[in-house]
Amino acid sequence: MYNPKMELTLEQKEILEGKQGPVMAKIMETVVMFGDIFDAPRLIKVTHDEGHLVTSFGIKILKPLFSTIKQINDAEITVKGKFTVDPRPIDYENVKCNLLEKLIFSKIMYAKQAMYEEQLTKAGLKDNNAFTCASYLPEIGNTPKEGDILAWAESSAVVFANSVLGARCNRNSGMLDLFGSIIGWVPEFGLVTDEGRKAKWKVIVKCTKKPEAQILGSAIGMKVMEDVPYIIGLDKWLGNEINDENIGYLKDFGAATASNGAVGLYHIDGLTPEAKKFKEKLIRDDAKEYVIDDEELERVYHSYPIMWKKPNKKGNLVFIGCPHLTFTQLNDWTDKIIEGLKANNRKKVTVRTIMTTAPDILDKFKKTDKYQALIATGVKLTSICPLMYTNNPLTKSRRIYTSSNKLRTYSTARYAKDQEILDFITGKEA
Amino acid sequence: MKEFKGRVIAGGTFKGEAAVSHQGFNSLASIQKSALKNAKQVIVSDQNNKDLFGVNITGKALCLPITIGSTTGGLVIQTSCQMGIAPACFLFSETIDSLAASGIVLARIWENSPVIAIDKLGEEFLNTVKTGDQIEVKEDGTVIIL
Fold first, then answer.
1. Residue A394 has what pLDDT?
2. B89: left (phi over 0), alpha (psi -120 to 50) or beta
3. What is the C-alpha radius of gyration for chain A, rounded to an integer number of angstroms?
4. Tens digit of pLDDT for each residue in B69-105?
5. CA-based, 20 to 30 A from B75: which of A207, A220, A421, B83?
6. For A189-218, what is each residue's pLDDT tens digit?
């Protein structure tokens, strides 16, 4: 049996010794050994029982995932609360695929999807609408409070929960998210501690216009890697209150910091909860400095390699919404697309365009007049994960544009700024 | 010959070739393409990684500062170990990150993988070692660039 370095309570020791069965013992061993690596002194209680899991896809190669959850299901172990999970991979109705692509998606890549969703349901999946990377948005309702301790994974959700909501969560890996939600404790280290939430980087934004969230996040992520940045000069454009307008910006910015680097928490001076409370006291004495101006953002933007097989040709597919769009973002994009088409004397978008949002937000949007107006432009709405679409090797031949730096990082999609995407799909001549 | 001493996360011995990333190693972006193809080797597919893009890392000593990117990272490492296509050892110059640590622990406990992990080898280690160097790793966390 593993000999833990950290202090465990009697209950925790008994679980480790197998009092609640061998599977629970193995889960406890994994969590404790993981915490010991970071010299965690103890396990602390998860105070927000609703988990969020990163692995939503029944991709055939993930044998360790399926076999572990099978053991959990067989032992009739469930999470303390319920959990949400990242988006589903397939929606043939709105993300059309040819026969060969369908064959690869359904019979080869995601052949285990139905079986895996059954496994998730048995372990405590919230409901059929629980598939989104933006589970923290109010429409979905898996929204932790300030100070809550979480056992979540999904890099963009963790960074949002830590930074914007003031909750406390380490960058847990898939499996550790489930394990923490099952045993209800996580190791006390890193981003769940006061010290771990202090900034090792002071980032000063000196741009002359509001920086593109996805490029700013990318620049900061690449520079600070897993450290916590304290960002000064951004509240000038974002204001001093978290609201519907800036939530979308903060979501996209955070996702880029987490995927282009490994940021799990950022503070924005004058805006995010801890920065408002503690101000520059959050910055460590030995913090390094990074100044970002227009030139630096352009340097980062032009550093992205173009992975298309035919880079000089125009794009033939556009994905908007990674992470999933907020309700406000969905409305804003709809307005801009309609206005843009009108200005360019067009009725339909010039290229196949897919926007992604959470199932609950999609349901809400469908009840508004704008839904039909958007669909009339030819745009498709779905709740899949675009990254899982691009995992299909056959999609590599498509020239995909995206305004998501996360999608760019994990696929051959080419990044374009929001305005460039809008101009392209509405037919504005360069 | 140069010797470095780190902290043993998962012990073992190794003699073989180094593959070096001076920037954070994005596990998902690097490994997913080969894993999805059910390939027998991982050819790094991370477009952002100028050091290792296109390099085979299977069975090698992956020398890196930390891992970065998606929180599927740990599961990706665990899966690559289960498939037998992972690096033989992970040699971190910095303190191991939470995703890599998860992957190593999951691989050890749930897959009985012999994967080796040593961290805190220091900045000089990463500045010294080069892709293609022969490396020896000892049980106590000693890493020798031969």
1. 82
2. beta
3. 22
4. 888 999 999 999 999 999 999 999 999 999 999 999 9
5. A220
6. 999 999 999 999 999 999 999 999 999 999
Q: What is the DSSP string of A116-165?
A: HHHHHHHHTB--TT-B-S-TTSTTT---PPTT-B-----HHHHHHHHHTS
Distance separating alpha carbons of residues B64 and A318, to the nearest angstrom? 34
Number of C-alpha atoms within 13 angstroms, CB side, residue B37? Answer: 13
C-alpha B142: how far from chain center? 16
Residues of B with CB under 8 A from a CB of A: 9, 24, 26, 28-29, 32, 35-38, 46-48, 65-75, 78-79, 82-83, 95-99, 101-103, 105-106, 108-111
Distance from CA of A363 to the nearest CA of B (A): 28
Q: In the prediction, which pLDDT does A60 show?
A: 80
What class is the B2-145 domain?
Answer: alpha beta
Q: Which residues of chain B have pLDDT under 70?
A: none
Q: Which domains does chain A have, with CATH numbers?
A: 10-192 (3.30.499), 196-302 (no CATH), 317-425 (3.30.499.10)
Residue ranges per domain, chain B?
2-145
Q: Which helix (H) or strand (E) holds B143?
A: strand B142-145
Residue among A55, A175, A260 minimizing CB distance to B102: A175
Residue window 177-206, chain A: list those with CB within 8 Å of chain B.
Answer: 177, 190
